[in-house]
Amino acid sequence: MELRSTAPYCSVPTAVVLWLLSCSALVHGGDIVHHDDVAPRRAGCDNNFVLVKVATWINGKEEMEFVGVGARFGPTLESKEKRANQTRLALADPPDCCSKPRNKLTGEAILVHRGNCSFTTKANVADDAGASAILIINNQTVSVQLYSPRRPVVDVAEVFLWLMAVATILCASYWSAWTAREAAIQQDKLLKDGSDEYCGMEATQSSGVVDINTMSAILFVVIASCFLIMLYKLMSLWFIEILVVLFCIGGVEGLQTCLVALLSCFRWFERAAETFVKIPLLGAVSYLTLAVSPFCIVFAVMWAVYRRVSFAWIGQDILGIALIITVLQIVRVPNLKVGTVLLGCAFLYDLFWVFVSKWWFHESVMIVVARGDKSGEDGIPMLLKIPRMFDPWGGYSVIGFGDIILPGLLVAFSLRYDWLSKKSLRTGYFLWAMMAYGLGLLITYLALNLMDGHGQPALLYIVPFTLGTFLTLGKKRGDLKHLWTKGDPDRPCPHVQLQPAD
Questions:
Q1: Fewer CB within 10 Å, N- or C-terminus of the chain?
Q2: Residue 331, phi then psi, degrees to nearest 5
């Protein structure tokens, strides 16, 4: 492929040096290169920044493939490997390109030996002589193949991640609603003796469940912001190690809780689940819990040790999903007022730390933390992720725990209300809330692709869909006041018999 251009050459920092850096540093395969609004532009130097694959052959044998960044000037690179031509590059004379070349370099791409002067000096000399690009090489003849493959509009990984998030909320909601219904049944049993002692108590309250209030919803977002700042300021390998340990502890607890609940549904494990032994510091623990705990601990430790291997994302997703389901089972929104405050604050939190934070920190704090910049890792472990399957640049599609847990609290609340109110799927709120979450997450991925891969705050799209749908339906059906204040349906005491009308 001939690297010639009739356009004026760009300045060294925006053109030649980009090629130089492409051979001395590899770009992370999961990163997305965006337009550079800082580097100066000149007439004819308006090419978009693109990632460039540089396939090399040494003495006719295919060798290592590098990743670089395309320059502002020159022709547009081919996007298909099969259409990209192999080009034998010319050697500079003198080879180190530290002084004025003896040969004419107009429009040529040259190979330059490393050493004897700085990279900047080599780039300036080559630029003055009219070279279109330089590559730093050893003393072997090198041929290169340059092409810039395009990313797919939608990767299959995003579809699977969408299904994973929706299925997680679906499972957590049904578990939460089932627990609330069991608590209501237990209350009804206590009221069979005709006593008024238990009338008026909360039917959905059960042991191990925490109902959040308005103040705790606001404090949650404030604490989350402080934690995000701490992550941003202290982002390093050792700090990520601490997060990995905390994630493993939470993952073990979540996986253990989910496995015990799942196995308890089978007759073979009923006795083990209902038989307890007293453990110091832990209290009464079922034999089934003791049986599954070692497996959960080993699973989490194995993931932590081998989390850098290519398939470690599977273990991270399993631990993450179990943790999310457990949190949605334990933490509950008591009414729509608390849910509105919580999601409203979370909406502003996401918007601020993705977009507004750029004004103070000159970069998006949320995106930097999610990517794990300067940490030596592929990001913090509090994410569900799937490798991009048909993306030539690799990387992962990810979604944060908060983008599932926070709207999941409202969706789970809707199903509990439907079950306790004995509403059908069509006349209830759960189906619509679930559809709203799925649509909001889908719009998030569409925005992510339409915005050229720029990070998007998922709650910016999810919150208006889920919360807006709930509020609109509640007002239309006349349930909004009850949903806003009480949250649970009015359930008369079962021993009170309705008197027939005269």
A1: C
A2: -95, 135
pLDDT of 192 over the 70 cut: no
Burial status of residue 239 (CB atoms within 10 A of its CB: 0-12, 13-18, 19 or more): middle
> Could you tell me which residue, 66 or 138, shows the higher pLDDT?
66
Q: Collapsing DSSP states into helix, strand and coil, what is residue 262?
A: helix
Tokens of 500: 């027939």
* Interval 381-399 mean pLDDT: 86
Q: How far apart are CA 296 and CA 304, in angstroms?
A: 12
Mean pLDDT of 10-23: 31
For residue 275, the 8-state DSSP code is -
Overall domain count for the chain: 2
- Same domain? For 341 and 467 the reply is yes
Do the domain assignments include residue 370?
A: yes
Predicted model pTM? 0.71
Report the alpha-carbon distance of residue 136 to residue 341 in Å, rounded: 57
Phi-psi region at 193: left, alpha or beta (left = phi > 0; alpha = psi -120 to 50): alpha
Last residue of a domain, one of 86, 115, 147: 147
- 45-82 core/surface letters (b: 16 or more CB in 10 A; e: else): bebebbbbbbbbeeeeeeeeebbbbbbbbbeebbeeee
pLDDT value of position 191: 65
Is the CA virtual torsion 303, 307, 313, 319 positive or negative? Answer: positive
Tokens of 459: 């709650």
**What is the chain's Cα-based Rg?**
30
- Give the model's pLDDT for residue 312: 92
Give the residue numbers marked as catalytic. Answer: 350, 403
Range of 204's domain?
Answer: 156-485
Q: Which two tokens stand for residue 98?
A: 């530290």
Average pLDDT, the chain: 78
| Separation of alpha carbons 152 and 234, rounded Å | 35
Report in angstroms the alpha-carbon separations of 388 from 264, 435, 443, 457. Answer: 36, 25, 19, 20
Please report which residue ranges of 306-382 form alpha helices under DSSP H. Answer: 312-330, 336-351, 357-361, 365-371
Which residue, 147, 168, 203, sits at the end of a domain? 147
Cα 250 to Cα 322: distance, rounded to the nearest angstrom: 9
Per-residue confidence (pLDDT) for residue 375, from 0 to 100: 60
Q: Are residues 173 and 124 in the same domain?
A: no
Give the chain's length: 502
- How many other C-beta atoms lie within 10 A of the C-beta of residue 389? 14
AA identity, residue 484: W
Q: Using the 8-state DSSP alphabet, how is residue 44 labeled?
A: T
